[in-house]
Write a structure and sequence with these properties.
The complex is a heterodimer of chains A (about 260) and B (about 300). Chain A is an alpha/beta fold and about 260 residues long. Chain A has two domains: about 1-95, Translation factors (Elongation Factor Tu (Ef-tu), domain 3, Beta Barrel), CATH 2.40.30; about 105-215, Rossmann fold (3-Layer(aba) Sandwich). Chain A has helices spanning about 25-30, 75-80, 120-130, 150-155, 175-185, 195-210, 245-250, and strands at about 1-15, 20-25, 35-40, 50-60, 65-70, 85-95, 105-115, 135-140, 160-165, 170, 190-195, 215, 235-240, 240-245, 255. In chain A, strand 7, helix 3 and strand 8 form a beta-alpha-beta unit. Chain B has about 300 residues and is an alpha/beta fold. Helix content of chain B is about 30%, strand content about 20%. Classes of the chains: A alpha/beta (about 260), B alpha/beta (about 300).
Chain lengths: ~260, ~300
């Protein structure tokens, strides 16, 4: 992990409430793995004070991309940044998704809810590069929450779409679509998911029921992102007993069976 | 430029220490700062045994501030000595251990255990964490409890003892004096201010613990006032903290009488903050042709009329 105080915004894309920033930061890019995140400073002033944790959406030689929804003061300020401005970033942070050594020819189930789709693009590309077959399940409240459909389709992966209001694709929760699809298709080697907690809990149940190993990326408010403040903990099994474990340091991705759900 | 500080019981390379609870056990910051450039490191609070801490959410952001209710989650003294200290060996910067206790006896037990360890330069007695007892209760809210606990700790300790005070009191000077009379070698303040935040959608507190401790730039003026009050009324050295983000912030604390400062929440925002603040103090002194940092301590210019208020 390192601090790049001047990652240049080289490209920006805007949808209805969603944003993508491509940042030039070769040193961060070189180290990045799917599922890892950045702590992004949104203001040089003391308000808002804390950096915002954002997962790495994509990576190339030159830099990394972040994809986020405008959901509060911090992301609203970030959304107003323009190409040519710089951002102060820390990263890559945390442990990413575990990719099996032999991904070749295997099928993987990637499930993203809303902005939770962000890290799965980087993962899907990595799985493709290793000869794996990612199938992407992408759900949102409504059609406007799914701006990345074509981007995923361009990877030549299967993309399954759901909306809670039925405006596009499968009508209902993404987890219901996943359940339906898993019931009638070959068992994937692994499930990877990122989204809100109730969705993660549901997926943990589905994965356990079908005995498919699952890797879940969890969200939390974070103070520092580097393990110093102990603010972002979740209940996780360690050596047989449940402990408050730091999401930033030991996550944000956990094996589904380690997570203790008391929602 | 001479940035060294003599606390009497400990000489510091410069007046900037990393504050407990914001710098982990030091190791977390190795990728970002040269730890040897700090005046000192106060490591995260230790109970005798590992401690689970409070349920999440543990953090809420406020205007220029951070409210936390971590609840002193930690690994306990044994793991600290066996796993952490060896990794800090070879460091020139003094390591100060922040000492916690559920009971007065536990404070003494932690000190007893760590006394033998030559790698520790001193203790900071944490009698002021607002997140471990109901409604923020802690020994530092009462001069009487502060006196008896500091006395006990001082009897147990073979190392210098800094006592960290709470701002959640009506008369900070009386608590500081109690600590001094009980034998404290220095006083550090302020710990966080008892605070809360509410989510208006759910009408629930934003912290699982309801209350938390406020830190960050929002608290700096209060911290500065309290450090000034205490520094003018006790003879032992005072270490000031509360919302220090820059060298200029740190200098304000030195001018009102702090002999050193601790940098806390700033470490979360900018992991290089502590060393940057040392550099900024140095630059200021060079600009103003101040040869020794000690020459700036307690130099607040104040009229008699103002002082009598």
């Amino acid at each position: 992990m390192l601090n790049d105080p001047a990652a240049l915004i080289i490209r920006k894309k805007t949808w209805d409430g969603y944003f993508l920033l491509a940042l030039r930061s070769p040193r961060v890019a070189r180290r990045a793995k799917p599922g890892q995140f950045l702590m992004v400073r949104v203001s040089g002033q003391p308000y808002p004070l804390l950096r915002r944790p954002l997962s790495i959406h994509a990576r190339d030689e030159e830099g990394v991309e972040i994809f986020f929804a405008r959901s509060g003061l911090g992301t609203a300020i970030l959304a107003d940044k323009k190409t040519g401005e710089t951002l102060d970033i820390l990263g890559p942070l945390g442990k990413g998704f575990v990719i099996p050594a032999t991904a070749k020819g295997k099928s993987f189930c990637l499930i993203g809810g809303g902005r939770g789709i962000a890290p799965l693009y980087f993962l899907a590309r990595e799985l493709r590069a290793k000869g794996g077959h990612p199938r992407v399940f992408y759900g949102g409240k409504t059609e406007a929450d799914l701006p990345l459909i074509r981007k995923f389709a361009a990877l030549k992966t299967e993309v399954f779409i759901s909306t809670d209001d039925g405006s596009l694709g499968f009508p209902g929760l993404v987890t219901a679509m996943v359940e339906k699809e898993l019931a009638r298709s070959a068992r994937p080697a692994r499930i990877y998911a990122c989204g809100p907690d109730p969705m993660m809990k549901k997926i943990a149940g589905i994965a356990a029921g079908l005995n498919i190993p699952a890797q879940l990326s969890l969200e939390s408010i974070m103070g520092c992102g580097i393990g110093a403040c102990w603010g972002c903990v979740r209940k996780v099994l360690r050596g047989g007993s449940a402990e408050w474990v730091k999401i930033c340091e030991e996550g944000p991705v956990f094996a589904s069976r380690e997570i203790v759900w008391d929602l | 430029m001479d940035l060294t500080i003599d606390l009497g019981f400990l000489k510091l390379r410069n007046p900037v220490l990393a504050a407990s609870g914001t710098f982990g056990y030091g190791l977390e910051f190795k990728p970002f700062v040269n730890l040897d450039k700090l005046g000192g490191i106060v490591v995260k609070g230790l109970y005798f045994n590992p401690r689970p801490g409070n349920p999440p959410p543990r953090l809420a952001e406020s205007a220029s501030g951070l409210i936390n209710s971590i609840g002193l989650q930690g690994i306990g003294v044994r793991a600290f000595c066996e796993k952490i200290l060896p990794q800090l060996q070879g460091l020139r910067t003094p390591i100060i251990v922040n000492v916690c206790g559920e009971t007065d006896e536990e404070y003494a037990a932690v000190i007893d255990y760590l006394n033998k360890d030559g790698r520790i330069a001193g203790f900071e007695l944490n009698i002021s964490c607002p997140n471990v007892k109901k409604e923020g209760r802690c020994p530092a809210l009462s001069p009487e409890h502060t006196f008896s606990l500091v006395k006990l700790a001082k009897e147990s300790s073979r190392l210098p003892l800094i006592v960290k005070l709470s701002p959640n009191v009506t008369d900070i000077v009386s608590v500081a004096r109690a600590a001094e009379e009980a034998g404290a070698d220095a006083i550090s303040l302020i710990n966080t201010l008892l605070a809360m935040a509410v989510d208006i959608e759910t009408r629930r507190p934003r912290l699982a613990n309801t209350f938390g401790g406020l830190s960050g730039p929002a608290v700096k003026p209060i911290a500065l006032r309290m450090v000034y009050q205490v520094a003018s009324r006790v003879r032992i050295p005072v270490i000031g903290m509360g919302g220090i983000m820059t060298g200029r912030d740190a200098l304000e604390f030195l001018i009102v009488g702090a002999k050193a400062v601790e940098v806390g929440t700033a470490n979360f925002v900018d992991p290089g903050a502590s060393v940057r603040i040392v550099r900024e103090i140095n630059e200021f002194c060079r600009e103003k042709k101040i040869k020794k940092i000690e020459d700036i301590i307690g130099t607040l210019k104040i009229d008699e009329v103002q002082a009598s208020r």
